[in-house]
Structure formats: C-alpha cells, structure tokens
Amino acid sequence: xxxxxxxxxxxxxxxxxxxxxxxxxxxxxxxxxxxxxxxxxxxxxxxxxxxxxxxxxxxxxxxxxxxxxxxxxxxxxx
Length: 78
What we know:
By secondary structure, this protein is mainly alpha-helical. The protein contains three helices and no strands. Helix 1 packs across helix 2 and helix 1 crosses helix 3. The radius of gyration is 12 Å and the shape is globular. The mean pLDDT is about 90.
C-alpha cells in the first residue's frame, strides 16, 4: 500500500463525513478534524507535526498530506 492509500485509509476511519477527494480538504475540516489528522499522521509515521504545519496548503488534499509526511520524514534522516 502506498503512502497516499494509507493516509486515505486512516482518515476515512477517523473522519467518515469528510470528502477526502476534495481539492479543498482544509475547508471541510473543523479544528478537531485538523488536530485528528496531525495526530494520526504523527503516530503512523513517527514524525512531529505541529500547529504551524496545519496550513491550507498542507491540508489541501491527500497528495499535499503525503508531501508533508515525505518532507518531515526527509528531515529526520541523519
């Protein structure tokens, strides 16, 4: 399973009412939804996501969430 599929699967379970295919995912989220996404991705990938990562650009779509995870994972490399 690739990263985007895994992220979609995680979020579909946690946020069943959110349209994950939206190109404007951020606009469909309330603060609890944003917090849920950051916590789930942090736990799944062992990365630190903070409130400053919760930008409309980073939370625009599944693709942008996967890119955020990739960026954080790359920052953890020695």
